[in-house]
């Protein structure tokens, strides 16, 4: 039977590529988004993938949204925690709001989404939790104390929860993309972006599909022995 997957932040960028790739792999996919209605409607019209609006930063909204997806598509087998934001600023200029917004979405959002699906996965003895972290959670990044902290937190979450899910057929893994050619990276000032590309040994930004293919593998039955792992996909920019 087809598995049901939720992809957060699934209507744009890396998330959209993941949603489409999981659909092509035979899953029933729900794409969550928080803000951009126009992009979500366009994505739905183009792909036929149903879209659901709620903020991953809000626990009750996640629980309600997941209940709706389960009523429409069936119990969630695969959760892809992809939704993420940046609020870059050097630390001496970083506001409390820039700190909490990023932590609430990128780290608390992972808790808020995983907690409501966890017991069902335990009962059914199958689950895949895949969280999109970042190269900048591994190496740190100037002007991203908030983002780097949130993404490093996602890796700790993954390693801890993997140990809890293992006996119940649930794998919990992370992917650390490097710089991928999405709106988020294109928002970095051009000069800074050029300097970043110069540090990538393969000499280019990554493509969203290159991350999506990692997700499809981790979500598959073939990846059942892989848990607590991090796939690094960054064009050779940083080795752990
Ligand atoms: N290392 C050391 N110094 C740096 C630096 C770096 N990487 N980047 C900038 N600086 C320095 C500048 O040279 C400048 O120094 P001077 O004042 O001596 O000239 C100073 O920091 C910048 O100060 P500003 O007051 O001009 O900074 P600002 O308030 O205008 O902020 C910025 C600018 C936010 C840092 C901007 O440069 C920026 O956006 N940088 C990119 C940060 C980045 O890589 N973000 C990743 C986004 S993509 C992503 O996050 C996806 C993913 O997972 C990979």
Describe this structure in words.
The chain is 49% helix and 15% strand. The mean pLDDT is 97. By secondary structure, the chain is an alpha/beta fold. It has a single domain, classed as Rossmann fold, CATH 3.40.50.720. A seven-stranded parallel β-sheet has the order 3-2-1-4-5-6-7, sandwiched between helices. Bound molecules: acetoacetyl-coenzyme A. Acetoacetyl-coenzyme A (CAA) binds next to helix 6 and helix 8.
Compile the SSE list and pairings:
Layout: E1 4-7, H1 13-24, E2 28-33, H2 37-47, E3 51-53, H3 59-73, E4 78-81, H4 96-106, H5 108-124, E5 127-132, H6 135-139, H7 145-165, E6 170-177, H8 183-186, H9 190-198, H10 208-219, E7 230-233
Parallel strand pairs: 1-2, 1-4, 2-3, 4-5, 5-6, 6-7
The protein binds acetoacetyl-coenzyme A (CAA).
Could you tell me the CATH topology label.
Answer: Rossmann fold
Mean pLDDT: 97
> How much β-strand is present in the residues?
5-15%
CATH architecture name:
3-Layer(aba) Sandwich
The SSE order reads: EHEHEHEHHEHHEHHHE
Q: Based on the structure, what is the oligomeric state of the protein chains?
A: single chain
- Write down the overall geometry: globular
Structural class: alpha/beta
In short:
By secondary structure, the protein is α/β, with parallel strands linked by helices. It is 49% helix and 15% strand. It has a single domain (4-226), classed as NAD(P)-binding Rossmann-like Domain (Rossmann fold), CATH 3.40.50.
């Amino acid at each position: 039977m087809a598995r049901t997957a939720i992809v957060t932040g699934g209507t744009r960028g890396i998330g959209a590529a993941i949603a489409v790739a999981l659909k092509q792999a035979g899953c029933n996919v729900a794409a969550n988004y928080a803000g951009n209605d126009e992009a979500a409607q366009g994505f739905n019209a183009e792909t036929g993938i149903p879209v659901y609006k709620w903020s991953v930063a809000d626990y009750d909204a996640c629980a309600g949204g997941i209940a709706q997806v389960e009523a429409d598509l069936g119990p969630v087998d695969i959760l892809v925690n992809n939704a993420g934001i940046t609020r870059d600023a050097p630390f001496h200029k970083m506001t409390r709001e820039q700190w909490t917004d990023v932590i609430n979405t990128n780290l608390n959002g992972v808790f808020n989404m995983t907690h409501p699906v966890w017991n069902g996965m335990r009962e059914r003895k199958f689950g895949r939790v895949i969280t999109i972290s970042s190269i900048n959670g591994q190496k740190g990044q100037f002007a991203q104390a908030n983002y780097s902290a949130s993404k490093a937190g996602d890796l700790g979450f993954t390693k801890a929860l993997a140990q809890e899910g293992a006996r119940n057929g649930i794998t919990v893994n992370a992917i650390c993309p490097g710089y991928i050619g999405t709106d988020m990276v294109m928002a970095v000032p051009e000069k800074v972006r050029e300097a970043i590309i110069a540090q990538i040994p393969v000499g280019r930004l990554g493509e969203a599909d290159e991350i999506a293919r990692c997700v499809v593998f981790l979500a598959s039955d073939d990846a059942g022995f892989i848990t607590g792992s991090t796939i690094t996909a960054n064009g050779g920019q940083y080795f752990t």
